[in-house]
Amino acid sequence: MTNPPLGRRRFLALGVGFLSMIVGRARATETQSRTGPILGKSQPFSFEWLIDHARGLAQRPYVHTPPRAAELIKSIDFDAVQKIKFRTSCGLWNGRHFPIRFFHLNKFVNEPVTLHAVQGGEARPIVYSKDCFEFGNSNLERMLPEDLGFSGFRVMDGPDSETDWLAFQGASYFRSSGESGQYGASARGIAVDTAMPQPEEFPRFSQFWLQEEENSRSVTIFALLEGPSLTGAYRFEARRGSGAVMDAHAELFIRKDIDRLGVAPLTSMYWYAENASSRPDWRPEIHDSDGLAIWTSSGERLWRPLTNPTRVLTNSFVDRDPKGFGLLQRDRDFNDYQDDGAFYNKRPSIWIEPIGSWGEGAVQLVQIPTDDEIHDNIVAYWTPKDIPKTGAHLAYKYRLHWQDDEPYPPNLARVVATRIGRGGVPGQPVPEHRWKFVIDFEGGPLSNMRQRYDVKPIVTASRGDVENAYSIKVVGTQRWRGFFDLNAEHGEPVELRCYLRLGDQTLSETWTYEMLLG
């Protein structure tokens, strides 16, 4: 079959396409020759100015500005996102310790943020240019407006690295790959009305100011937080070490009364582990974190294993000026996950270290039911005792540690596994309303301790009867295992606590658990 004659319309169409290709190549060449992003006009900048700016915004009603090209952005789905590549020549601080690269807007993160580069007390806006991105074989480059904006940024692991170690993107979320180079749990700037009757509010970091510290391997990130109920000025000083450490300073201004404020919130995913009654997937365990650790002001160390409950659970651990808390991934054994794609055994733990007095309040843990590993269903944060009222000004300083282990491990044995099964004795009739708990402890004064039978699990329950409590050393290991049965009728949940003791000596941290019955 012969080809039809080349008509005028088709000729013009091909001509326009050819011209676009030439212009596109020229623009790409120009972009690749850059040594950094396009910067706008400079203005004076300081953290004090940002605090005053946030204070002024809080005195006016919140106004949400709809993003430009909203319908087009919605079309950038998961497959399209995978094709979008940032041109490194447009990055900030290329060739320095921690180059910055930028994220494009997409269906999942569709609110633009304004970015600035800070140097010598002056800030210059970083101008979005679609020439700084490769869009694969899509028509996005032709359709997108020039002044669209970025969705966030990431901090690279070195001048020639293709991996990042810190990223800010979406609402007030940020995360680090930690010590083992694998992303997992996230942090947030603030949490508002989490697990309340009314919908949760998600304030967002609308603007960032990025400042590379001279002669140091750190980066300082300033952020403006905006939401219907509050505004905030944030400063994060992030540095690499054994994982990543970030010093955070938040100045918050309340626009309207808030029923529940979550300070230094952490967000994670927990589907199931060894304490699950059934396993919905072929992998033995699936979770970013396996427990909440708390170091109270009195020095007590608590461990609450995470669960995937049948309904939303909110637990409060009341304290004054806590020494720390965090969502940890203690199980580092690949064999317990068998996942060589997601590498859950490498997910970072996140520890919050309060700086200064936080007053009275509670570490609060929220656990939400999930049926998949794609949902972040775990939240932990500090909530002050006094409910924030309109016009209030709150200030918090804290340090975030992103690493494999908690930064200040106790000189005590720690819980490493929790298992639950039917109570009673094998081979004998199974009593009704009876469950067996098996808790593994490891480390601290139990290390290298020989088998003995006067190590006692001290168990308390909010209701029901605790029976047959004893402990043994697991043969061939340095683990000690505590056993007990709980006998309780269906009804209200049962709060449990357990730790190991030898005479008057406390050997372990305190395991806590909420058992749902009925």
Describe the structure.
This protein is mainly β and 518 residues long. The protein folds into two domains: 361 residues, Beta-galactosidase, Chain A, domain 5, CATH 2.70.98.10; 102 residues, Immunoglobulins (Immunoglobulin-like, Sandwich). Helix content is 10%, strand content 42%. The protein has five helices and 35 strands.
Short structural description:
This protein is mainly beta and 518 residues long. The chain has helices at 8-32, 47-58, 70-74, 78-83, 140-143, and strands spanning 38-39, 43-44, 85-86, 100-104, 114-119, 122-127, 133-134, 150-156, 164-169, 173-176, 186-188, 190-192, 204-212, 218-226, 230-241, 243-254, 261-268, 270-272, 286-287, 291-295, 301-305, 313-320, 324-328, 349-355, 360-367, 378-384, 393-403, 414-422, 434-442, 455-461, 465-473, 479-487, 494-502, 505-506, 510-515.
Poorly predicted residue ranges: 1-30
Radius of gyration: 27 Å
- In the CATH hierarchy, the architecture of the largest domain is Distorted Sandwich
How far do the termini sit from each other? 75 Å
* Count of helical stretches: 5
Largest β sheet strand count, sense and barrel closure = 17 strands, mixed
Tell me what portion of residues adopts beta-strand conformation.
Answer: 35-45%
Global mean pLDDT: 92
CATH fold naming of the largest domain: Beta-galactosidase, Chain A, domain 5
Strand runs, count = 35
